[in-house]
Amino acid sequence: MTKVIAGYTTSIDGFVADEQGGVERLYPxxxxxxxxxxxxxxxxxxxxxxxxxxxxxxxxxxxxxDGYEFQxxxxxxxxxxxxxxxxxxxxxxxxxxxxxxxxxVRLARAAAKDRNVMVVGGANLVGQLFAANLxxxxxxxxxxxxxxxxLRFWGARLEHLRLETIAVSRAGDPTTLKYRVIR
Length: 183
Known about the structure:
By secondary structure, this protein is α/β, with parallel strands linked by helices. The chain has helices spanning 30-33, 37-45, 53-57, 64-67, 101-112, 123-131; strands spanning 4-11, 46-52, 73-77, 93-97, 116-120, 137-143, 163-170, 175-181.
């Protein structure tokens, strides 16, 4: 059964970026993770991605076709599609969804078939998905660093959220906490 999985990486003190918006200290071993079973399993289990527009634009989208780990259909939630459609390669494709997170998840579930939908985006996108009751699992990678200040992931609007722990593991530096969303 297809699950919608949202996740993020945080410091021990609960920040997802430093005061300048930098995330480098949270991802010191990103290149090393690519070859680990943790990442390989995640890639194998992912059939589609729902992504926020800001996350999509963080890098050069034309390079994703040759280098992005998730070589699957990507559904970008946006108010306005870009003027230039990024390069595709037969595995990775882009659909710009302008009618909300519900539509993006519906399209991604259909594309994923029997694999999972991975959410790749910031707090705004994930918050919208939780508010619409569209997330099945939450994965949190806790990095052993203290940022002291910066951007937090959660706001007060989801205090009703109920989670059940399904796994705790390590892959390199981060400790991964996996939760099932209780409906």
